[in-house]
Amino acid sequence: MTNQQDEFLAVPFYHPLVSRSLLYLQTGFPVHFTGPSGVGKTSLAFYIAKQLDRPVTVIRGHHELSNKDLIGHYMGVSKKEVIDNYVHSVYKKEQEVRPLWMQGQLVEAVKKGHVVIYDEFTRSRPETNNIFLSLLEERVLPVYGNGKVTAIPCHPDFCMIFTSNPEEYAGTFHTQDALIDRLINISLDLCDEQTEMAIIRKKTGITEKEAGLIVHFVNRLRAYGNGSSPSMRAAFMIASIAEKASIKIHPKNHLYQQLCLDVLTHHVQPFFPDEEEETVQELILQELQREDEPK
């Protein structure tokens, strides 16, 4: 586990959520964080997993993921030959061929009690996710095609954290009600401005004033849309690049202006589908300049 998740330690906004999630996981119930892209679902999942002090297995949801990846499958054979020609007049040859079993991602986690983070699980096909119904309800992992082994019981410490984007996002599948019914479902949204500033400061090292300039500006752009885009990730990108490239965070700085346009135009353009990109960029610059207006 890397230290990049530690920004949550200094942000009280998340403390109640972390405490509740740990309680649910430690009492045997899986947690599901859902919300728009960029609100910190995956970072929060990693931070919570770190608090449990167990090995972590990460599964990334995608439409090609299958039970073969999760459980395992046969792939070719292993071959062993023994030739005995110790006595010159006697030639002896023994050959053993065994099917080669490739173990899936879940097997070790189930056996040894890992914390499994299933990131963006709704990007996987529903038929793939069916395996989690018995895993979460009966605490056994069904195994297909591996000889006499048909099920693996869960280690007592085994637990799961799911994350997902809303179903209207491209590339997601409708989630089975039976699976959702087995999860503690927690919706995440953007945090308040002070929390967002604190997280960005801790992750990038910029000053409180600089973080305020970025977050207030990005938040004004959110007001034109659905309130969640541009996400906190966009604000972090601006702050991180500016800090690493020594770009002065000031509305009149041409390099800073261009950085903001490059990061944010793609996010703001959908709010104005009938407008040219140049018009959208003019609006972004106008909102950027509002920082210099007298209070």
Model description:
A hairpin with a 7-residue loop joins strand 3 and strand 4 (92-103). The chain has helices at 15-26, 41-51, 67-70, 105-112, 126-129, 131-137, 177-180, 193-204, 208-222, 232-244, 254-268, 277-289; strands at residues 31-34, 56-60, 72-84, 92-103, 115-119, 140-146, 149-153, 159-164, 184-187. It is built from twelve helices and nine strands. The strands form three sheets. It has a five-stranded parallel sheet with strand order 2-5-8-1-9, with helices on both faces. It has a two-stranded antiparallel ribbon with strand order 3-4. It starts with 14 loop residues before the first helix and ends in a 6-residue tail after the last helix. With 295 residues, it is α/β, with parallel strands linked by helices. Helix 8 (193-204) packs parallel to helix 10 (232-244), helix 10 packs antiparallel against helix 11 and helix 11 (254-268) crosses helix 12. The model has no long low-confidence stretch (mean pLDDT 86).
Question: Which tags fit this structure?
Answer:
295 residues, alpha/beta, five-stranded parallel beta sheet, two-stranded antiparallel sheet, 12 helices, 9 strands, 40% helix, 21% strand, elongated
Summed up:
The protein has helices at 15-26, 41-51, 67-70, 105-112, 126-129, 131-137, 177-180, 193-204, 208-222, 232-244, 254-268, 277-289, and strands at residues 31-34, 56-60, 72-84, 92-103, 115-119, 140-146, 149-153, 159-164, 184-187. By secondary structure, it is of the alpha/beta class.
